[in-house]
Amino acid sequence: MAAITAQSPRPGIPYPGAAGDDLPLPPQGYTGSVLKGVKPADLPVMETVKFQFVINLKTAKALGVTISDNLLSLADEVIE
User: Fold this and answer.
1) What is the pLDDT of residues 35-77, one digit of tens each?
2) Which of 16, 18, 14 is nearest to 68 (CA)?
3) How far is CA 72 from the centre of its chain?
4) Are 54 and 19 contacting, i.e. CB atoms less than 8 angstroms apart?
5) How crowded is residue 30: how many other Cβ atoms within 10 Å of its Cβ?
6) CB 50 within 8 Å of CB 20
7) What are all long-range contacts of 59-64, with beta carbons under 8 Å and residues at least 24 apart?
């Protein structure tokens, strides 16, 4: 899964991604902790609990791919 949100969609058709506000500690936070001497095993495991499902119809149309209405209804955001 990609940690990409609807605010910065990558080219593609459907993709799941972690929602921006619900991202755990960014990787540089872990790196900073390790550089300060914290053992990696002592760092907490953080998981994202909210995901967004975005469908890029513009790319789908350019590729000649048809997205079903059922799949469109499941999407959090549809990029026209």
Assistant:
1) 999 998 998 877 767 778 888 998 899 999 999 999 999 998 8
2) 14
3) 17
4) no
5) 16
6) no
7) 59/11, 59/12, 59/13, 60/13, 63/13
Backbone angles phi, psi at 76, to 5 degrees: -75, -30
Both tokens assigned to 74: 């499941």
At a CB cut-off of 8 Å and minimum separation 6, what does 68 contact? none
Token couple for 64: 């000649």
* Residues whose CB is less than 8 angstroms from the CB of residue 54 and which lie 6 or more positions away in sequence, other chains included: 6, 9, 14, 15, 17, 75, 76, 77, 78, 79
pTM: 0.48
DSSP annotation of 61 reads: H
